[in-house]
Amino acid sequence: MQKKSYSFSEFGFSSQIIRDLVTNNTNINPFIDSFFSLAAFENQIKTKQFSDENRLILNAALLNQNKSIALTALSENNIELLKNKNTFTITTGHQLNFLTGPLYSIYKIIQVIIWTEKLNKTYPKQKFIPTFWMASEDHDFEEINHINLFNSKFEIEAENQSNFIAGKIKSTNFDAIETELLAKFSDEALKSKIKNFLSYYKDENLAHATRGLLNELFGAYGLVIIDGDDKNLKQLFSPVIKRELEESVTFKNVTQSNLELDKAGYHSQVFLRDCNLFYIEHETTRYRIIKTDNGFEINGNQFLNSELMDLANEFPERFSPNALMRPLYQETILPNLVYFGGGGEIAYWLQLKSLFNDLAIPFPLLRVRDSYVLLSENQIDLIDELAYSVLDLKQNIDDLTKAYVKEHSTSDISMNEEMQLFTQLKDKLSLKVESKDIGIQRFIEGELVKIENQLDKIEKKLIQNEKKSLEKSIKQIQRLKDKIYPKNGFQERFENFLHYVNNDKFIGDLKVIAEENLTEDPKVQTILI
Asked: Less Cβ crowding at N or C end of the chain, within 10 Å?
């Protein structure tokens, strides 16, 4: 059940460009084709052209990629539907975080699923498929190798992870991680569930593990999981790879877009390079392609332009797009209409409109994902009892405590009146010494600062003394803040779904709540779970 909803502007977490995007500010018009809305899909469907040949290649690639897992009948049917010209994908993506990583990766997938169902009802002549893009070619292992659970960090280790693409990495400390995680649970049924989730990682790389786990969690809703690290799909992307090598097409277009963004008062999200491709060696290790005066450099080795072009023609699967080019790859190989992502992700899509136009690739609709704050009934009741809101709890804990003590103290501990009198005294003394020499002025100013500091110390002592009688409530405030803003971050960027593993219907409950509160503009929603 949803308890409270906030706009992105109220919550103040996103950048200005994202707040302007979700409020349909006309300043964003040069960087998109259309603002996200249910009605906008009608034109997006007409705009997105995807050949029958590409559909067959996509279908074959998905069947091959998913052959090692037990797909649900709905996911299997969705893969088959992609061969039809009236079928389109609704896509989100994420890194291959251990055990799905922070909660927001779960939220992204749920929103793709519910919007797919909404679109299938709204546009019955078309079919829409919920799709998850595995960022298997990333190599930021430190970002994805851990989860936070019950105030502990569980971190998988791997050999030779430097420059390894994430999809090929295997855990080298699986048994230790399994033992540590299971020790956090006493109930045997919960231990069994955790062991099942972990089983996908035993002796398997992160791409295989992520695919298996997400299929278990979301296969019932027909989720289709795609890995861009695929020879046949890279073949479809080969023309874009070659234009990047020949013309620096990304640098040329995004440089101009960045200037326009700066002129509009926005900043660029992703660093731009002369060449925005990586090269994959031995199917496992990814190195940046650096443009030089005479050609290119890869891992210290020099290549002429012609040599790298020959490799692009013969082995396109060895070339990997960076963060800026990944959207181009996705939109080349999928009949996609919209991308759901976090504010940071969507911000760099807004750098790409000119590039999409140059490459004649239709630009998708963009939808910033919703955010959720998951609270128990007791926690929601406590927030109400304390007369706080989720927004109030964003404040510094010292400021929260100080304000609470002042408001609920049984004695007068405020120093406001004394400080007002002191301010008047300072003003009078300033007039007395206005015409005196600089030495006297500095002496008096120094003494006044000492007095002000002493008054501040007195107030802190009074507050500290009063805290003792309000200790229970202050601890409750601290626990609430730690729940919603752990380590001064945000719950969805810290907690893992295993925190709620005792709820067999956790995913289903979240989906129902998201459906009940479906809106075209994203929200931050407080939810009873």
From this structure: N
Query: For the chain, which ranges sit under pLDDT 70?
Result: 1-2, 408-419, 421-422, 426, 429-437, 455-456, 458-469
Nearest to 249, CA basis, from 264, 259, 263, 239: 239
Distance (Å, rounded) from C-alpha 76 to C-alpha 191? 30
The whole-angstrom distance between residue 430's C-alpha and the CA centroid of its chain comes to 54
Alpha helices in 6-102 (DSSP H): 8-11, 16-22, 40-47, 52-65, 73-81
232 token code pair: 């046949």
SS (H, E, C) 461-472: HHHHHHHHHHHH
Report how far residue 56's alpha carbon sits from residue 297's, in angstroms, rounded to the nearest whole number.
36
Helix extents (H) in 66-152? 73-81, 103-122, 141-144
Burial zone of 120 (CB within 10 Å; 0-12 exposed, 13-18 middle, 19+ buried): middle
Task: From 181, 91, 162, select the one nearest 133 (Cα to Cα).
Answer: 91
Burial code of 179-197, b = ≥16 C-beta within 10 A, e = fewer? eebeeebeeeeebebbeeb
Summarised one tens digit per residue, pLDDT across range 131-155 is 999 999 988 899 999 999 998 999 9
Q: State the sign of the Cα–Cα–Cα–Cα dihedral 224, 230, 236, 238.
A: positive
Angle between helices 231-247 and 52-65 (to 10 degrees): 120
User: pTM of the full predicted structure?
Assistant: 0.88
Exposure pattern of 373-386 as b/e (b: 16+ CB <10 Å)? bbbeeebbebbeeb
What local confidence, expressed as pLDDT, does residue 402 receive?
A: 77
* Tokens 């650096």, residue located: 290
| Separation of alpha carbons 342 and 371, rounded Å | 9
Q: C-alpha distances in angstroms, 14 versus 349, 393, 414?
A: 15, 18, 36
For residue 239, which of 353, 316, 310 has the smallest C-alpha distance? 316
pLDDT in tens, 371-393: 999 999 999 988 988 888 899 89
Q: d(Cα 160, Cα 331) in Å, to the nearest integer?
A: 32
The confidence score (pLDDT) of residue 505 equals 92
CA distance 109 to 513: 14
Give me 479's structure tokens.
């626990």
A 10 A CB-CB count for 459 gives: 18
